[in-house]
Each structure stands twice: as C-alpha cells, then as structure tokens.
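Protein Record: Sequence and Backbone Structure Tokens
======================================================
Scope: a single protein chain, as residues and as a discrete description of its fold.
Tokens: labelled as protein backbone structure tokens, with as many entries as the chain has residues.
Position: the record begins directly beneath this header, with no further notes in between.
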Amino acid sequence: MNEQCMLALKQCHDKEYYRNFVDDPTITKINMYGITFFNRKCSVKSEEYKIITS
C-alpha cells in the first residue's frame, strides 16, 4: 500500500496538479497527499511543495 501512495504522489508531480496554485502570491506551500484503500485498511503519505518567490 505504501508503494501505491508513492505512485499517487508521483502522479501529482507528473501531472503538475499544483501548477494552478503556484502563481497565487498568498500561497507559500502546497500539501500533496497520496491515499490508498484496500478492504478496511488505509494508507496516507504526504509531501510538502514549497513555493519559492523571488
């Protein structure tokens, strides 16, 4: 299940789901989550994407 969570986070990066929020000056970080379910079990992995402004 952990591997599937990591694949979900990779998908967030590959498809750049965070891209819509990068240009907003009020947002300084974005939390991304990979969530997997199997039967009655759940696994969650998170990653923080920090926005660096110049």
